[in-house]
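The following record pairs a protein chain with its ligand, zinc ion.
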Amino acid sequence: MNNFFYRLQSAAARLMYGRNGVDQLGWALLALYLLLRAAGGLIRVPALRAGFGLLSFAAVVLALWRVFSRDLAKRRAENARFLRRWYPVRTLFRDARARRADRAHKYVKCSCGAWCRVPRGVGKVELMCPRCGEKRIVKT
Ligand SMILES: [Zn+2]
């Protein structure tokens, strides 16, 4: 039995040798597939539902095609382009989660776009934005 699994494993390794495999763009396409499937499940209009089904199918086909692709240079360039767009978005999400998790501070967004942090429970304070210097009164 062990031998069987060993052979299965080495067969898989041979199959994947020199191929792109699953990169971050691959995971993103898979997530897109699941999202489109879930969205399609909620839609009552048959034509629209079919459209979502087709798009989700296209996403999974593209994902699989990229996994088995042998043109590593092109696939890596695609993945890099994807990451350049994705990382700033991910940072926004991570920062928002960190602000929510921080119960000790209140976060105030300034008109210049900067986030200002004030300790909670100190009453009314005057806050000066460290980026643009704008002052405002904040209730903590
Ligand atoms: Zn500011």
